[in-house]
Design brief:
Blueprint (H helix, E strand, L loop, with lengths): L1 H7 L6 H28 L7 H13 L5 H15 L6 H4 L4 H10 L14 H4 L2 H9 L4 H39 L7 E3 L22 H6 L15 H11 L18 E3 L8 H9 L1
Antiparallel strand pairs: 1-2
Helix pairs in contact: 1-9, 2-3, 2-4, 2-9, 2-11, 6-9
């Protein structure tokens, strides 16, 4: 996908293809990965109709990283590893930029003694997710055919190749820096890997780059907790709520206090809810 995008995008540029690229990136990253895959499927941070969950998760599959079960598995293993006193370099993004990119995007990690992965029964029995898990790469093909029929080669190149390449590579790049450097409001004592806020990516990551907040409150449906932290995934979720399509939305104040969570004094101001949580913890 990356090779095709680099070679073909300059040759087949049109404004319509660029608009298609932007629209499909926004839909798959926001409704798909951020809201469907991450906040709903992985963290169960809100409830919604099953059809809406399926639709959002399907868009998340189209991002091109993995199937729904694969996403839950790697996320759970990464979270578990990062909370330990010591963590493998792979999960800590401890390698340099190029090596970490090669490992994360092109390699498989095989552990001698991997932790046991137990998928929750609701997902283990779901035939839709089983189908998407088997066919997640092939899910690009119907859209490739549609884009080719409607807009020719430019739509195919920009709507599939460029979109998948940019979204997958961008997801890794944000994850790389979100575990290495950036702003911090919180520290989880005893955890080998801390989260950092990648402010420059707040908008284009749909709020996912406010990763220090996420490490502090992993079950929260809202990731942008401080003033000025744009969180488009949260904005979409609020829209769902107003339409009666989302409920039981989990926020930091709904989560139990964590003894290991420390508010950093340099960021002790800001949101009143966060100030109360800091005092409570």
């Amino acid at each position: 996908m990356s090779g095709a995008a680099l070679v073909l995008c300059p040759l087949f540029f049109t404004w319509g293809a660029l608009l298609l690229f932007l629209a499909t990136c926004g839909a798959t990253l926001c409704a798909g990965h951020s809201v469907g895959m991450h906040r709903r499927l992985i963290h169960n941070s809100f409830d919604c109709p099953l059809w809406l969950e399926y639709g959002c998760v399907y868009l998340g599959v189209l991002v091109g990283m993995a199937g729904p079960i694969g996403m839950v598995r790697i996320h759970d293993m990464r979270d578990w590893a990062q909370r330990q006193p010591a963590c493998h370099d792979y999960f800590a993004h401890r390698a340099g930029l190029l090596r970490d990119g090669w490992h994360q995007l092109h390699c498989t990690l095989l552990l001698d003694r991997p932790p046991e992965f137990r998928l929750e029964p609701r997902l283990a029995r779901d035939r839709v997710y089983a189908f998407l898990e088997r066919s997640w790469m092939a899910q690009q093909l119907p859209w490739a055919a549609l884009f080719l029929a409607l807009g020719g080669i430019p739509w195919l190149v920009w709507g599939i190749c460029a979109r998948v390449a940019v979204c997958v590579t961008g997801h890794w790049l944000v994850g790389h820096y979100a575990h290495r450097e950036g702003g911090q409001s919180w520290r989880v004592e005893g955890a080998c890997v801390q989260g950092y806020d990648v402010r420059i990516a707040g908008f284009i990551s749909m709020g996912e780059s406010w990763h220090n907040n996420h490490h502090a409150f992993p079950g929260s449906a809202k990731l942008g907790l401080e003033a000025g932290q744009v969180d488009l995934g949260w904005a979409l979720l609020r829209l769902f709520e107003r339409l009666g399509l989302a409920w039981n939305i989990v926020l930091p104040e709904h989560l139990p206090a964590r003894a290991a969570l420390r508010r950093l004094a340099s960021r002790a101001g800001g949101c009143p809810v966060i100030a109360r949580l800091w005092a409570r913890s």
